[in-house]
Amino acid sequence: xxxxxxxxxxPKTSDSxxxxxxxxxxxxxxxxxxxxxxxxxxxxxxxxxxxRAVLATAQEAAAFKNCHNCSYTYxxxxxxxxxxxxxxxxxxxxxxxxxxxxxxxxxxEQKDTLMHLSKIARRGYLSxxxxxxxxxxxxxxAAESFLTHGLSHLGEITYVxxxxxxxxxxxxxxxxxxxxxCKCYNPESKLIxxxxxxxxxxxxxxxxxxxxxxxxxxxxxxxxxxxxxxxxSLETLILTSSPLIGDTFTVRELRTRCVDNLQGHxxxxxVSLKKQHPEIHRQLTAYVEDATVQLxxxxxxxxxxxxxxxxxxxxxxxxxxxxxxxxxxxxxxxxTIDVMRDVFGSV
Length: 347
Fold this sequence. Notes:
By secondary structure, the protein is α/β, with parallel strands linked by helices. It has helices at residues 2-6, 15-39, 58-63, 77-87, 92-109, 111-128, 140-149, 167-170, 172-184, 251-268, 273-276, 278-289, 321-328; strands spanning 42-44, 53-55, 65-66, 73-74, 131-137, 156-161, 190-203, 210-223, 236-240, 298-300, 312-316, 334-338, 341-342, 345-346.
């Protein structure tokens, strides 16, 4: 027995020795196969009544089936279906998908949250066209906090044009559904809400365990808040500029003066983009520092600190007059200022 441990394949000496040692040789071969199975990546069916295990070669791996929501693997569709009733209770992505649907339901029911989302949807549509309101939570706990505490814990909100939606962020099926919603809804009475939650999950890999960041998303169409109609009467300030071209100044100098003038107009109303709208301020800073950066139309709803009234501010730098006229045509009381040809200085 000891010699078997030190020499897994003893040399053949005679027929009689071979016969005596045949059982030991078979045991060695079986031990080698077991060692190979444990030292190589193994795929195992997660259905407990099956538990089939195979080496994770490309051919074998192709035959296995994944859970639609997570990294659990099964040797067949039959095993996947048989295990689902039990697996669905613990499946991470299934639970996060359910959490997304709860967020959407709560957004519909909470009056202040719906009002906030409706405001974002309307200003986004008026300045950028049809699209979806995206609500991002950095982790499941953040989404659960919103369910408990409401609007004060709502995730990061942005308005996304349907052309800017990314299939890689949500998968082809949801992408197709979301784009279809964006093209068919009535922005005068409806909005599209797109909720996504970031999760960290284990992924199948050879050797060490690997973790990856993934997004679980759900979307829905809902009615605009009735109170949103009151925003139609808001004063609208459009801050714009024609394409910045000049022989005297560099692109950076032109953009610096443009952004300084823009912020000067807002300071007249007591609005500081850096303090009150830091994301807009970061985009404008990047626009100044990098000549390759192009700004999309941005809309904010600041409050005039002197009158106490909110107003709609649309920032449209380096755009043609046709685009400006289209936005002007959607609003009532509109004031449009070319920030490069005003009292703050011209080129």
